[in-house]
Amino acid sequence: MKYKDIVATSEQEKANVFAEFFHSEIYAAPNNTLPFHDQVSKQVNIIKHRMRTVSDIKWKKITPEEVKWHIKQLRNSATGPDNIHNRCLKNYTSQLIDHLTLLFNSIVDVGYIPSMWKKANIILLLKPNKDKHQPSSYRPISLLSCLGKLLERIIKQRLLLELNRRNILPQHQAGFRPKKSTMYNIVRIERYIKSQLHHPIKRRHAAAIFFDIKAAFDSVWHEGLIYKFNDLRLPTYIIKYIISFLENRTATVELDNTLSRLFTLSSGTPHGSPLSPLLYIIYTSDSMNGIPPHTEHGLFADDTALWTSSHQLTNLNDRLQQSINEFEKWCKAWKLKLQPIKTELVHFSIHPRKKYKNPVQVKVENITIQPATSTRYLGMIMDNRLSWRTHLKQVETRIAARLSLLRFLNRAAIEPNHNIMINLYKSLIRTVIIYGYPVLLSADNKIWNRIQIIQNKALRLVLGLPHYTSVDYIHRIANIPRIKDYAVNLLERATSTAASNNEMIYHRSLQDILQASRTQQ
User: Mind telling me which PROSITE patterns this protein's record contains (predicted)?
Assistant: First the structure.
């Protein structure tokens, strides 16, 4: 393991190298570089002093029923430093529930979280295709106290209810929110671009930029987050809890049963905490406020995209650059850093191969970004014609190994159970090929013919039938609809759900796709 001038060989040395890397480069407190930062710091000191001196806060106490309900939702996840497992909590008695309720209410009343609940054991996952000898090649996962996370779930639920009641969260932030998914913004951008490329009066150019924010969750400025909680006038008891939640967090790196030295986490929200995604969403809730009305945006946690259109390429460039500059300004104010190298630009056109005199190109952090022919966005590969052919190629590559696994399982069993094999197909193959079905339904029939071939091949394989078996027969035996029929059925349900959730923009988009797909049939 190598870091700076240090070469670590023993497990203890390696663990300490990781600790030094995370402490100094990932979780270090970001410096104040603008006068605004000093203003926020001063204001937060006043807020903290006020929270320490305030008493007799009126708030709705946590109830035993609330504790019991959240315990029932727990999974059997790994334990934190206190070694209390969720299985212990699930085997609760009424006496334990009463004690936990009293404990949680006392913690919230006082605004003090036990230090053990703010300590993390960090385990490491090597990122794909990265050098295993570099500490930056690993993704940290925090193992936290299960008891602490139980209280965090309760606070998160209450906080989310308050945010929804007051309509604070951005409309187009779809990450980690009930009744929203990745499809929300995928459908929005696809509908927008297609409407511009096939404009009834004059076809327009469209462009989208997909940002990469460096260590987004780990870079949350603690003082900035507290400032925003206060600015949003969230309940005082929640602000007190969040201040304690962020203060004096510590961690050790666990490497092959060896623990590193203890170090502090001066920035970021802890991985593995139920609260972290919501805190990040609140932190970035005003990130699009400065974006001009001619540019659309989509957010899914830290995945941020901007898109716009124009008749002229120069105007398209200017519009997108103006919006990028506003987002850059916001990032600088709130101490988040964009990564231009990982940021991607796509110019959508009905003539994607045409060489333009003034091609679309923009600058991010003073680095020029050239347009790519395709990019991955929320699990879908969007090409510059929105044909979805590149996406389908990637899907075919991805499922090849899964088909081989099904073939092996079918041959290994003396008498394979067809019901089990069909269920394996549904979970391992169909979920992959059907992902993104709303926008795939707007693709031409050649795409669906290829997807149907994948299903045909998989069904013959799980049923142990030869390759010449008729398509109608394998679907009748498996009791599975044709893949496009299945997608249309899913779309009908999604359209109905969007209407019942009062997501009218999303509902109209899905309805347009549904009507078009029925016309094709």
Answer: RT_POL (PS50878)
